[in-house]
Amino acid sequence: MEFSHVPVLLEETIEHINPKAGGVYVDATLGGGGHSEEILKRADCRVVGLDQDEDALNHAAKRLALFGDRFIPVKSNFRNIKKVVYRLGFDAVDGVLMDLGVSSFQLDNPLKGFSFQHDGPLDMRMDPQNPKTAADVVNTYPEKELIRIFYEYGEERYAPQIARAIVKRREKKPFTSTLELAEEIIRAVPAKARREKHPARRVFQAIRIEVNDELRSLEEGLVGAVEVLKPGGRIVVITFHSLEDRLVKNFFRREENPCVCPKDFPACVCGKKPRLKVITKKPVVPSREEIEKNRRAHSAKLRAAEKLSLA
Ligand SMILES: C[S@@+](CC[C@H](N)C(=O)[O-])C[C@H]1O[C@@H](n2cnc3c(N)ncnc32)[C@H](O)[C@@H]1O
């Protein structure tokens, strides 16, 4: 299959990462390698490219082979960023990029099971070594858990109706394919909800987040990224839904203003020092032209912060 992932907010990412000659940058979500390629073109630097999907990693490694040892591909979840960076022998890095979610390549490949529009196995694992698949979630989770996941990770208002329909149907025959599930979701929601965006979109997102433990990975990845950044180094995160964006915004805020002392204390006694300065007071969003050219960009939000030198 041809890899045709168009990097989102490319120019804005480069501007915020600000690559410099001699620098080391971690592209924590390598995907098709579009952002990495641009960083490598803009400065005589090195890029460590992480992806938990080996297919994506191999493909990007071929594309970026022309950069020789300036590009270092590593198969890993970015929650392990600190271990990866230290194992490669770097003490710290000059920038970290996270462009979250799945790539067009993963989404368009029915065999990965991410799409509610193409039939495929109910898989949704970015890392095929992850033991939990979407089928496990759909066929074995208690109804209450399904409701929680659909509400929390999908912000799906018909979560109870959809969970009920899934449980009833799986008692007769477990789900095996993406279209079977998508059709059951469509049947479970009221007619008016069927006229909005595809009714399965939010539930598929929720299951994908659960299967890949995306929110916990993100939290751990952000903590690790701040630890491996040099003072003056930048972290740039591109999110595609409000849960991720809120998580990143709150993380940056806490790192910028971590003091937990009561407001009426004359001086700080908690001793927590800021580690980041937020550069994007408001998230950077794509232009109308970019959204017209690349539908995937429509919900993208970029936030960036700089590591402070500790006093
Ligand atoms: C949106 S794509 C990145 C696209 C890339 N920036 C480009 O220009 O082609 C996200 C990629 O990150 C990977 N990914 C998502 N979460 C990850 C995680 N926690 N650890 C490592 N890779 C992850 C996915 O497998 C996918 O290939």
UniProtKB/TrEMBL annotation:
It catalyses: cytidine(1402) in 16S rRNA + S-adenosyl-L-methionine = N(4)-methylcytidine(1402) in 16S rRNA + S-adenosyl-L-homocysteine + H(+). S-adenosyl-L-methionine binds at G33, G34, H35, D51, F78, D99, Q106. GO terms for cellular component: cytoplasm. GO terms for biological process: rRNA base methylation. Residues 290-311 are annotated as: Disordered. Its EC number is 2.1.1.199. Keywords: Cytoplasm, Methyltransferase, rRNA processing, S-adenosyl-L-methionine, Transferase. It is found in: Cytoplasm. Coiled coil: none annotated. One of its GO terms (molecular function) is rRNA (cytosine-N4-)-methyltransferase activity. Belongs to the methyltransferase superfamily. RsmH family. Specifically methylates the N4 position of cytidine in position 1402 (C1402) of 16S rRNA. This is Ribosomal RNA small subunit methyltransferase H. The gene is rsmH.
